[in-house]
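Weekly modeling sync, notes
Attendees: S.R. (lead), two postdocs, one rotation student

Agenda item 3: backlog of single-chain predictions. S.R. asked that every request posted to the team notebook include the full sequence so nobody has to chase files. The rotation student volunteered to paste the first one in as an example of the format we agreed on. Action items at the bottom.

Example entry:
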Amino acid sequence: MKKKVLFSLKSPYREQLDVIGYRFGHGEKSLAIVGAMRGNEVQQMYVCSRMIQELKKLEADGAIAENTEILIIPCVNYYSMNIGKRFWAMDNTDINRMFPGYDMGETTQRIADGIFQKIKDYQYGIQMASFYQSGNFLPHVKMMDTGFTDPNFMKQFGFQFALIRKPRPYDTTTLNYNWQIWETKAFSVYTNATDTIDEPSAEEAVNAILRFMNSAGLISVRIHSGYHTEILQESQTKQIQSEAGGLFVSLVKIGQRVQRGDLLGKIIHPFDGELISEIRTPVSGTVYFEYSSPLINEKTVCFKIIR
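Predicted structure, as returned to the notebook:
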């Protein structure tokens, strides 16, 4: 393993930002894994730290394929992580909306450019992603439908579900999209949590990434084959929004099968405890996202169902 500073940015207020990368093996640029780009992505950073420990053991055992280089970047934005802020601490911009970056631009554009120049030439790319809202996901893998990457590659992770997302205009500045434009086979891996550590889903993500690496011939390891992955278009999922604001109580768990009309949750008045609204599913399927904050606003996505 080689630990190296990939990008540095001086600050007038504190120590300079040093983005650290951990390299394993040597030769062709085979796989890059990027963790936390937002300040609340603790779980995403944790999964990367777990991957570093796994690869250290595999490297010591000679289980990394010849002519193979693997790079892991656990955290890009620890400035914001240190103060508990999701986006860039100085101007509230999102690094994952700045790719491919610009080396003469605003601060987060420069960070995005500095990172992208180091990872754009890898054959495969995995981003440990998070949702913009507070909530829990059923662990899964997602890719942008740019026409470059074969969706069947997602089966190699062995997750229960894999989703294909049709890019929208704001997706064109994300890491996943730009990786693919530069001809990297790119995937986003989602686990159960974001700002907390969820050990079971972290373990599932680590095993899924090892499974993918093994299938791609990057490492040699004995590991369970996982699920027979069902590949779906993101349009096949149903978002369910709250009809009112108040205290949110979920009555289901992610991964649970539900039938049309089932009660998923309720919203109660925060002062007197009276029921304000019931949240029922208009479709049958599997719950793969559950809102987790105790307070909810009207028209907030509180559940997502895979139909």
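Discussion: group reviewed the output briefly. The CA atoms of residues 162 and 231 lie 5 Å apart.
Action items: rotation student to repeat for the remaining queue; S.R. to check formatting next week.
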